[in-house]
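REVIEWER CHECKLIST
Item 1: Sequence provided? yes
Item 2: Single chain? yes
Item 3: Sequence as submitted:
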Amino acid sequence: MRTIKTFILLSALAALFASCRDIIDIELDSIDPKLVIDGAVTDINDTLVIQLTKSVDYFEPGIYPPVSGAVIAVSDNLGNTYQLNETSSGVYTEYLPGTEGNEYSLSVEIEGETYTAEVEMPYKVLIDSLSIETTPDYFEFSGGYLVNCHLQDPSGIENFYRLKVSKINNLKEPQDVLVVYDDAYVDGNNITLRWDEEQFFPQDTVVVELQTLAESTYEYYRTLSALFESGMIGSANPANPITNLSGDVLGYFGAFTVSRDTIIISEQ
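Item 4: Structure as written out by the authors:
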């Protein structure tokens, strides 16, 4: 059985608190191959990419066959409709820069079936600042620094976040670590999110990406229990994460906005 972690937000009204973690167990079922629909509208990419593949059984991992010949369209609440073109096998694209507050509807017609999903682009929450702290002695690794992301959570609005942190020119294989948050207990507060998946060292240049997620995107990420073999979240093994797609299909149609900042690690 695979597990995936979710992290509770850290309220930093006066000081940085230790993060609290929940473990969510996701049952994996042995099933026949299913269609997987994978894509998200964002405010940082002008091109929407929808990928269609066939799943393979978790217990028989392998290559995930692309699915060609679909008719895919996305419409918004302003009356615009975008027809996606298959630019490579199983990959469908179209110029569609996401706009905060807009609603997007997806329609995928394939093999005599139609699958749909709806999602609203959330309003962007900006990174206020970044800071570092010495890696605590009780961690499995030590000798370096952890990176903190500070933000002001908007009051009276349910917000959902994903944090991604990486080092520029990292020679190691990238790790697709899925760390998501919600503001259920810290609505409207100054918040600090501590990235404790990796430590950094003096002269490292670190890029921090704060994604503000649609609620359905958050729920999908939160319950996702899949290996990231294809390099795209949700396009691999058949599990049962929560999805906004209709019908007997895997994957998700997501939306998120992005705020980025960088910090150079220095001796403390």
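Item 5: Key structural point noted by reviewer: Confidence is low (pLDDT under 50) at residues 1-26, 225-239.
Item 6: Recommendation: ____
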